[in-house]
Amino acid sequence: MSLIDWLRKAEEHENRVEPEPDRLEGRVIAALRTVYDPEIPVNIYDLGLIYQLSVDEASGKVGIRMTLTAPGCPVAQTFPGVVEGAVMEAGGVNEVEVELVWDPPWSRERMSEAARLELGLL
């Protein structure tokens, strides 16, 4: 996937409609919003650390491609397990695979408007 494709994905992240909370994807996103970045007081979903989320409603399988705010983040080895554990708590989830990626690097532009407002960046 090219950098242009990733940038388009970031725009899609900003413009997408919230999924219904009674669907598995909505429950997974709600679970992701309970996990906070250890250095920035914003949840990882609104912070834009989730690059891709795939949810199979029928099997309960969830795939997550995510990053951290910096490659040298001290929780890089353990944080995917924290995310996996939080998502496993969502009703209907049977399997979670979390992949940590570094390309493209995270930037503030990936943050939701709510996160920017919360941090005083608007």
Write the layout of secondary structure elements.
Layout: H1 3-15, H2 24-32, E1 50-56, E2 61-66, H3 79-88, E3 95-100, H4 113-118
Helix pairs in contact: 2-3
InterPro entries: Fe-S_Maturation_MIP18 (IPR052339), FSCA_dom_sf (IPR034904), MIP18-like (IPR002744), SUF_FeS_clus_asmbl-assoc (IPR014291)
Organism: Cupriavidus pinatubonensis
Domain MIP18 family-like: 27-98
In short:
It holds the Pfam family FeS_assembly_P. The protein has 122 residues and is of the alpha+beta class. 31% of the residues lie in helices and 16% in strands.
Q: How many H/I helices?
A: 4
Determine the structural class based on helices, strands and strand pairing: alpha+beta
CATH class: Alpha Beta
Counted beta strands: 3
Terminal CA distance: 30 Å
In angstroms, what is the radius of gyration?
Answer: 14 Å
Q: Which overall shape is indicated by the principal axes computed on the Cα atoms?
A: globular
Average pLDDT: 88
Placed side by side, the strands forming the largest sheet appear as: 1-2-3
